Amino acid sequence: MRLLSLVFFVLIFAFSPLASAKDLKSEEVQLRETPQRLFDRISAALSLPEAPLASSEQLSFYAREQGLSPQELSELLVLIARANLQPNVSNSNKRQDVDIITQSLENTATTPYQRAMALMLKGRAMARLDQRFEDAASYFIQSLTVDQESQSLESQLLRLNLHEQLGTMYLMINQDVTALVHLQKFRDHAYQLRNDYLIASAEAELGKYYIKKQELTKALQHYSEALRLSDRENHPFQRAFLQMQLAKVYRDLGQSSDALAHAHEAAETYTRLGIDGYLSSTLTVIAVTHAGNNEWNKAIDYYLNAQQVDRRSSNFSALARNFHNLGEAYSKLDENDLALNYLEQANQMFVERKMKHYLVHNEVLLAEIHCKMSHWADCILHADKALPLAEQQSLDEVKISALKQKIIAAKALEDLNAAIEHQALIIELMDSPKAAEATVTGAASALTEQKLKLDLHQKVQQLENASDTLRERTILAAGAVMLALILATIVGHYRRSKLELKAQCQELAARLPQDPITGRDGYRALCTALEKGQVKALALLRVPSLCEADIHIGQQRMIDATLSTLKAIETLPGIKAYPMRPGLIALALDGAIDAPDALLFNLRNQLTDLEGQLQLGFINLPLLPNPELSIPHGIHLEVLQMALAGIDSLAETSDIYLGFRALDFTPSAVFSQPLYLHLEKSIGRGLVRVETNGDKENLRWPLWKMPDYADKELPDVI
User: Fold this and answer.
1) DSSP class of 376
2) With the CA atoms of 408, 411, 413 and 416 taken in that order, what torsion angle do they form, in degrees rounded to the nearest 10?
């Protein structure tokens, strides 16, 4: 049964939008929207190896056991690992599974993309499971460097994920400038992929950034755009996430009712979907909204509800943040002993998980409560712990808060010198040019650091590649000397032949657009000019006296006469002449032909040496008034040929022109094969207008007959 499930899944995997190369974007959306469902489906069909696969050979062997190719197995392993690392996926063996998969992928990677994916998963595991954010950033940047050249869809999606992870992680640890750089690149990649779900995700992450910076108008703009895109399809998880974020914006704008409405709707969706991690965050948003209205008892109720959800899902990072929030709430109600209990639990968990970005705020709050309780030594202790953490993260406001607590303690201990010293530091922080220039300096240093890291890892990668190449060359050096001499001779001969062939190809390519008789630009050159869209009118000039000139006066004299004719025509402004065959010349004009009689008159003045009649067929481009309808260039010339066929039916001896103009409602089917038949019918029905200086009544169009279906009635095209 398990084997049948695996075969069924592989067939789906091979031909469905989940993993088909044609629709990797759909797979990416499923990983974000319904990762638990995806994880359960793959896990039910595929058993993981008990230990990491050590080589490509082991990967191939294990893949054969599973009835898969090595590439299919690698793709499935990546899907399982990525789904495992989503915050809303539950798996009791998550760490073990992720470790086995990441190590296997790292051991068996053979392409830059595979190596980059292994690095990304390793960094993601560090950030998600161990909160080792700085180490994770190093792996993410290495991954960007390893696969930075490929433009394949899978590589573009990988880079999109890397910039998203770097942006959200840097935002969490208070490196806001660097976070913005990566979040903007995340959005750029999403727009390049033209996927509404991914674009909405990128807009939402930028909204989170602007919430943190308290630029609430910008945050609201980003979330509104994200909601607009998300509403195009049914994505309940993404919509709930956006509602939760909008609740934060409205909360910070002081619009509590709107904030609570959005948050409660998001909480209902998360409850229905069974996503505890985001449900906890939403309950916390509701609690913070009530706290902003000084409704501390209501806030505590929602904090406690969130705490139950965190315990149920074993989300200890969220639980630590929840302890901090409860400590703050109880301190506002002057229940300081209870507040200290929660804050000390939070402190211990933040320290264990090295969550310095939360620890710094917890230390300041502990200092504040100890000061309220006149625990001066503890107040100073926690303030002293907060100061270096705030210094590391450039949090001047937190440093000022910690110094204020130290001033209170110093005054209580009658240590006036210390109080004055701390006050001076506060004044220095508030008045220092550093405060005014912090953003600019921080931006420059963060960007410089990021570029240096990328450059460093790129150089390391290049050095490793060069080292491998050098090792291989050393092993093969003895035999390579003789082989090089032989190869040099072969390569030299090959290069000479290749250069000669290249020169011949270039010469032939240059001659390809030329007319083989006259050496002037001919039919192919005309088609190229039409493709560029610069030709506004097209005409076909027939000079009967030159049509058989090669027989009557000889090949060379005919060529001379044709070249003379072309040169004379091109003295007229805005006309380029192309020889089609003896006596037939195509004219490309850079303006519309509004007065064909004037054009014919000018041509006659330029061609005074030619005897006999001039026949001119013409059309203005585009042939159809609707610019969205296109006609092949060969059809244009065939239309002009029919115009000349019509002129042939008139017993005229003077110069004559004939042109076609399609009416606004003319369908494109008129100009399809068989053209002569369709065009004749359309002229008769008034869809195409004929313009000529000859007698329209005497016009006769060529008889048209299908070889195989002469006796059958042809269907109308109109």
Assistant:
1) H
2) 130
Tell me the C-alpha distance between 636 and 618, whole Å.
Answer: 10
- Strand-pair category, 656-662 with 615-620: parallel
* pTM for the whole structure: 0.56
The pLDDT of residue 630 is above 50: yes
d(CA 23, CA 190): 15
CB 157 within 8 Å of CB 24: yes
How many of the other CB atoms lie within 10 Å of CB of 718? 11
d(CA 76, CA 64): 14
Encode 436-449: b = buried (16+ Cβ within 10 Å), e = exposed.
eeeeeebeeebeee
Residue (of 343, 332, 260) closest to 296 by Cα position: 332
Q: Which residues contact 531 (CB under 8 A, 6 or more apart)?
A: 633
Question: What pLDDT is stored for residue 468 in this prediction?
Answer: 65
Interval 78-98 mean pLDDT: 86
Assigned token pair, 22: 């044609």
Q: Give, in order, the Cα–Cα distances in Å from 395 to each of 88, 176, 321.
A: 31, 11, 19
- Provide DSSP, 392-426: HTT-HHHHHHHHHHHHHHHHHTT-HHHHHHHHHHH
Question: Which residues 6+ apart lie within 8 Å of 97 measured at CB?
Answer: 48, 80, 81, 84, 91
3-state secondary structure of 618: strand
